[in-house]
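Entry type: protein chain
Record version: 2
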Amino acid sequence: MKKNQNFLEKFEEFVDRYKLINSGEKIMVGFSGGADSTALLQALWYLKSKHGFSILAAHVNYNLRGKDSQKDEEHVKEFCFKKNISLVIKNVKLDSKSNLENKARDLRFKYFKKLTKLYNVHKIALGHNREDQAETLIHRLFRGSGYTGMKGITPRSGIIIHPLLSFSRQEILDFLNNEELTWRDDQSNYENVFTRNKIRNHMLPWIKENLNPKVVDKLFHTAEIFSDTDEIMQELSKRRLLKAQIKHSKNEYRFSLNAIRKTKPVLRFYIYKEIYKKFNGDEKDFYHSNFEEIEAILNADGSKKIHLPHDVYVLKEYNELIFTNIDDEEGFDVSNSKEITSLRNRLTFEDNRIIMKKLKILPQKRYLYEDKFTTYIDLDKTSFPLSIRHRQPGDKFYPLGMDHAKKLKDFFIDEKVPKFERDKVLLFCDKENIIWVAGHRIDNRVITSEDTGNILMLKIEKMTRKKSRAAERIKKE
């Protein structure tokens, strides 16, 4: 251990600097049996008593390399047995050889996530090192990851920690040799099938030899700079977000389009990502391509709507940019209609409750407490049956205050009703005419006056839409 005192001191200093582990926590180590994960587990084993945390090792055997996979598992078992480290193993067989790298990673993290709940794990420690950081930066640079991607692997991301991130591969190998520990080499790391292997085995060695022998160190420090910059940009974007915000609720955020446009594009990226995170709980699936989608509607003519991953919707409505996780068009049928043959106290249509009352006198203070979804109609100027429906081609009505007909389409344009909202507007009609464009305007031919003796009050109340069991099941899956 004396030979490795410097290694362990550096390891402990990194863990303390980034507050990766707290006393009393259970740390699960992704243990493949390779050099990195073996060094990580050994270093944590040395520190666990001093820092008061416990260790659980987790190994996934993908059975991709025949006998070598089995030998990896045996090595892992033997190592943990000698150190008295708790170990869990999952044996799997991947379906196909296409996209193996991503499939293996997804399977591994789903398994780790399951274990965190099963064993009350606080942190998941992974053995990424300085070379891994360099490879990640190069990979993301050429993939076009955008602003935040260039911060690379961070010391901590949620419950994921990377205590070996500041160590080079050579430092790790020296540590293992001084400890007289063996490890398993995955020969597939030397096959140039995966992009990362090509970067590791060809690109980085070429850069070291021809451009900069210290390229790994330079990229590591570049990632640190980008990480610090990312923190600053997050803080600036949160302030700008508050200035641009008009209002928000659990399911919706509305922003001034003008304020958003005046913000620098790099800050807009962080603003969009921050809002996406509020709905999704995670920003990892928000990519630069999603940013470009939102930017495309920012200056487009008319109302626009886009669908982001995990059912987050972005709408541009005149002077507002809206983020929501509710799709108002889900299960919506523009052909829906309902006939009302006689006066009824209340009825439902779609997710609306319709309240009807027959009055003899208009409420004197009605304008003080009624909203745009309440209206009063002269019953003597219309007759049952009434109907509720959505707009149809060629619809016209006489808007309040006008003595001639106006196309409903032109009315919506003048009132700045977004295109994707127009089909949802309820129209109340008698046998011949539209008598109320709900939420907007009553027809001038059915307005009440002081002489009106028979008054029909119509009021619309929104009901909470309940998703079907099938929809809920699909969402969970």
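Comment: The domain at 224-324 is CATH 3.30.465.60 (Uridine Diphospho-n-acetylenolpyruvylglucosamine Reductase; domain 3).
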